[in-house]
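Problem 12. The chain below contains 104 residues. Write out its predicted structure in token notation.
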Amino acid sequence: MSTYAIIELSGKQFKVMEGDQFVTDRLDCEEEKSFVNDKVLFVKDGEDFKIGQPYVHQAKVEIKIVQHQRSKKLRVAKYKAKSRYRRVRGHRQHQSLVEIISIN
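Solution.
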């Protein structure tokens, strides 16, 4: 098995490998830009592995933002019986599609 890592990104944990693409909450970075995340909790390279306490020392993951997007619309409804009270609103969460470039 190739190298993989468990990282913390925007308050959530993700198991990532090089070349993976996944959706996370909106990140404060421009599209097509890359950044380095040093919040690596676990790294496995072949038979060798390192566990962080809480983070692995000198481990870094380079991440590129592919695009910013919004999720599907959710319908949020409030209703109270026998009082003619109804409210319906929609919500679309802002997201970022990211790609893992390298794990060091």
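Discussion. DSSP finds no helices and ten strands in the chain. Students who got a different answer should revisit the alignment rule from Section 12.3.
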